[in-house]
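Homework help thread (please don't just give me the answer)

Our assignment gives two proteins as sequence + structure token strings and asks us to describe the second one. The first is just a warm-up. Here they are:
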Amino acid sequence: MKFVFSKLSPAGRNAHLSILIFHRVLPEPSLIFPDEMHARRFDRLCAWLAARFNVLALDEAVNLLAKNSLPERAMAITFDDGYADNHDVAMPILQKHGLSATFFVSTGYLDGGRMWNDGVIESVSRCRSSRLCVSDLALPDLSSLDVGSAPAKRVAIERVIAAIKYLPQEQRAEKVEQLAEIADVALPDDLMLRSQDVVRMRREGMLIGAHTVSHPILSTLAPAAIHREIGESKAFLERLLDEPVTLFAYPNGKPEQDYTQPSVEAVRAHGFKAAVSTAWGSATSDVDLFQLPRFTPWDSNHLRFGLRLAKNIWNSKVR
């Protein structure tokens, strides 16, 4: 398979940069989310990647891409949001295999914060009842949820998240707090990174990028709010790390749905050198450096993962 990737992604002008996107790496497999990345699976994947690809720091990869100087089988690894397990679980595994990654941090959740979707996940996961009456949330087609088993909890979580994902931020936060009260759950405050973790990760050779302050859907915001979210996250991280922060990831990241051209221009205006989306594809010499595509490695079987990654590169070649 290494030969296949050398053909699909040669060095130089015809190179393809595959950028992988992760979020969490759990210490142990999850019963509710069995497909979620966990330590043993991540360890096996990192060993597989290290043996087959030239894994580069994203800033270096972007520079080489712009100069048509990427090596064959070029790859970069990224993480979004800023979960504590990125520091505690993922980083030691990356270091074990001689790999680096870029961690995009939503700064408003550092030091005890919590993302809204995790509020939903934790409320349902920790609920001790077999059913949740959620009629008070006043959400379309949601009145009572089966939460009596791990698979049922997963379905319930997905339904609630889908129902509130695109609500205004304040209204969404209110719904999450209501759900926690209904479920009689005390929500955790240790899911996200601490500022000192971010500093240590950078000191250990990892890259840190900005991911807004509060992880909003940028396409729903007024221009001033877009600039505030992007600029304040960059400024916070630069003060924390005492160095320029040049990489950005769009929250959720679907072009024309989660962010639009005004967001791209705002990222450019705030002095970033590149930004990543969640649109599938591999980056080529003619790519917009402020809308770099990424690829989600959800397969647990390495052969299937390799074939899907190869298809992702091939689809980028024939566009």
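The one we have to describe:
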Amino acid sequence: MRSIDWKALQRLRAAFLDGSAGTRDYWQSGSDLDSYDQTFGQRIRWKWDYVLRELQQRGWSPPRGEVLDWGCGTGIACRALLAHFGVEQVTRVQLCDRSDMAMQYAARRLREGFPDINLWLESAGAGNASTLLVSHVLNELSDRQTEELRALASTAIAVIWVEPGTHEISRRLIGIRERLRGQFHVVAPCPHQDACGLLTPENHRHWCHHFVPSPPGVFTDGDWARFGRLAGVDLRSLPVSFLVLDRRPAPPLPAGVTRVIGRPRVYKAHALVLRCDATGVRDCRLTKRESPEEFRRLKKGA
């Protein structure tokens, strides 16, 4: 890591935790942005890499046209998208944030990696972009602002929305999915196009989240160890909730595919897997005797 302003990270973390982050611009200097980008921002980047790798595995790619990075912060989401899918199909990148300082930082970092990219900075964020990127904003938005963002999303061709994997935020994202799924094909994480199975009364305690492994080098880096203590986070993995929508037909999935939600609960002789498919969300019991290879993989964390 480059030089880190640890006091700035403590101040930013306090704003995220006490709920004041959504009421004002919390960036005070370029040092704030750079320290955030190297720490909190990298953890967000790993989540985006996880989501974008899955989209590539599914045979999905963003439509040609303009990319709008809404609430761009340091531009992590857009940098990840361009790194995975390239710039050939991107006619322009629009960076949108309430902070001019953040937009300028994001623009600089984008030009470092993609010097020929066509950039536009806009605090309000114009609609009708081909691809809308939204990252880690729901915990800073009021209900009115969330509805305005949902309306903006409804003007895009494709939407990639990545959020923290908490119960509250996941449930809010599910609500947005339900409002938008009539206008879009649901690409991920859902293996179906029907209503979310987590909305049934028996599944009220569950939420749609997955776990992203951290790069191995994190565990031998002193700065990351210090960051983990400061932020109070588990460096081993990151919970993520996400939603990918597209007006174009989604790439087909194999027949009978299901989605594992969260982590399987592995016991001595069996495991319980919360699975999602077109028939709903329910626990599936997998025994060591009947499925030894699968049980062994689950026990190892696969």
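TA reply:
I won't write it for you, but here's a hint about the kind of observation we're looking for: Residues 12 and 18 are 10 Å apart (CA to CA).
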